[in-house]
Specification:
Elements: H1 8-16, H2 19-22, H3 26-33, E1 37-41, E2 46-48, E3 56-70, E4 76-83, E5 87-88, H4 91-95, E6 102-115, H5 116-125, H6 129-153, H7 156-168, E7 181-182, H8 186-193, H9 197-210, E8 213-216, E9 219-222, H10 225-233
Antiparallel strand pairs: 1-6, 2-6, 3-4, 3-5, 3-6, 7-9, 8-9
Length: about 240
């Protein structure tokens, strides 16, 4: 049976710990949270699928959300593994178009949902809110450009190092901290980076010998983020 929904004090504390939300003007932040509601997803449950009508924006409160694309042949492209307090779903606020990708619960998850209509009503009353939502969107766009550059230009080990740094920093959303334990498997890294599992395994072994990481079952521990950055820069 799924856990009970989180209490408001708990989820609001999590939401406000994120750099993007913490920087919002108080009036706009209050307007966004007015109609926010938590929800719990079971492990493996799909939140939305590519082509679905937009239904709002989400913040991860607990657990991991997997953002993917699935081909007609059933092959999965893994774009991101989102953790608290990361936001997603904002693209459709700007164009009203259907969802671009699938979102799945990787294990049981707690999310906060703000309905599409509520967000649009908030920016209708407070037009400066579009700039704040634009900051959230452009942050994702910057990370997307960097990810394309990594896949196009970097050899395998620097590419793996770069992606571990990105995940550890919350995809750029945490400016003052980094995550030490990353719950990502070799297979998932391979899907993110268009690398075989064998290649990822070899790259992780090299990073482990370097003293940058330690591999655990289903997770990777960051031992030295500076050594990871050195491996990222060693692209020749």
């Amino acid at each position: 049976m799924p856990n009970a929904q989180p209490l408001r004090d708990d989820w609001e504390r999590t939401v406000r710990s994120g750099a993007w939300f913490a920087a919002l003007p108080v009036e706009f932040a209050t307007a966004l949270l007015a109609d926010a509601r938590p929800l719990v997803l079971a492990s493996g449950q799909r939140l939305f699928a590519r082509g679905d009508a937009p239904d709002g924006i989400y913040c991860v409160l607990r657990g991991v959300v997997r953002i993917t694309g699935i081909t007609q042949g059933g092959h999965e492209a893994l774009l991101a593994m989102l953790e608290a307090p990361q936001w997603f779903g904002e693209i459709a606020l700007f164009d009203g178009a259907p969802r671009t990708h699938d979102a799945w619960a990787e294990g049981e998850c707690e999310l906060l949902r703000i309905p599409q209509e509520s967000v649009l009503n908030a920016v209708a009353r407070l037009p400066q809110g579009w700039r704040e939502l634009g900051r959230l969107l452009t942050q994702k766009l910057r990370m997307t450009f960097l990810a394309v550059e990594e896949i196009t230009l970097l050899p395998a080990t620097p590419r793996v190092a770069a992606r571990l740094i990105t995940i550890a920093s919350g995809y750029g959303t945490w400016s003052d901290r980094s995550k030490r334990i990353i719950g990502v498997s070799q297979e998932q890294l391979g899907l993110m980076l268009s690398l075989s599992r064998q290649t990822v395994n070899q790259s992780l072994r090299e990073l482990e010998v370097l003293g940058a990481i330690q591999r655990n079952r289903g997770a990777i521990e960051i031992l030295d983020i500076e050594k990871l950055r050195q491996a990222r820069e060693h692209a020749a």
